[in-house]
Each structure stands twice: as structure tokens, then as C-alpha cells.
TrEMBL record:
Signal peptide: 1-19
Keywords: Signal
Protein's name according to its UniProt entry: Secreted protein
Amino acid sequence: MAIFSDFLAILLAASVVSAINFSEVIPGPGLPSLASLNLTSEALHAMGPIEIPPDYHIGDVNPMSKRDNPTPPACIYYGGALIDRANMLSCVNFLYALGTTPCTLSNSAASGQWCNVGNVALYGLNWNNLPTVSSYCIDVAVAAQWVYNNCNYDNVNQWGGLAYVHGNDDIIANVTRQ
């Protein structure tokens, strides 16, 4: 009987795990697929926050509305439309996993999407309107992690935000609701 109850416990645990649905992490145009990195959306959701390097000093921030057109760093309140923190962290972890892969904005593009998942979109902004701007995706992840850490609403939901990419003031990581 003990073997049967152990089996039922394992079966129940497996069905609970398989019932959890993770939003799909969708890489931006030109970035590697999850499969090519041997990653899954589930694995990205399971990873914890990344550490922000001690030399990434961005300054103080106050929450602002999108009408204020804030300069980075800023948390942006979208009038009640909060974003899911777990989904945001999945985008951070995806960009972090890309390491030294370039996250680039070219052809004078004002912005480009690097990741989206669920109701979260992570864009790069060409802050100084240069013909081409590029940084390692791991450095974009640091900026997005800063937004995650500093624009927390209630540990489940999150404001969007803007932060300079680590080591490159020409690119802004913009986390927003999609």
C-alpha cells in the first residue's frame, strides 16, 4: 500500500507541475532562438534575478507617468496597466543568457524589440539617434534588471521603466506593457 501511495504522490506532483503554464519567451528580430541556446521558456521562468555589477551606478528614480516623458532612469506608471514581474524576469534572463551577443539598433532606428513574453515587452531605445548603436545583450539585461529591482509595485506586478544600458549611455532598456 505504501508503494501505491508513493506512486500517487509522484503522479499528483507531476500533474501539478505540468498544469503550470509559462508564457512563451519570444526573442526579438535577429536574436537567437531559445532552441539554439538550449533554453526553454520554462527554464527562463525558473531562473532567479541576475546580479547587478557594483560599478552600475544609475542614480535615484521617482515613479512618473508616461505623460511626463521622463529621462532615464525612470519607473513609468501606465495608468493601472501593470506588467507581470515573472514574465519580465524571463526577458531579463533571456538577454543575460545571450552574453556577448550584440543587441543592436541600426539604420537610425529609434527603437527595436529584444524580447517579449506575456504582457511584457523589452525594447531598446536609440537615445541619441545614432546611425547604429550596440551593446552586449548581457549589459541590456543589467539595465532591465535595474528596472525589475527598482520599479516593483507589489512583488507580483511591476511598473515599466527606462534605464541606461550598462556601459553605454546611447542605448536605453525600455520595459513596457505590450
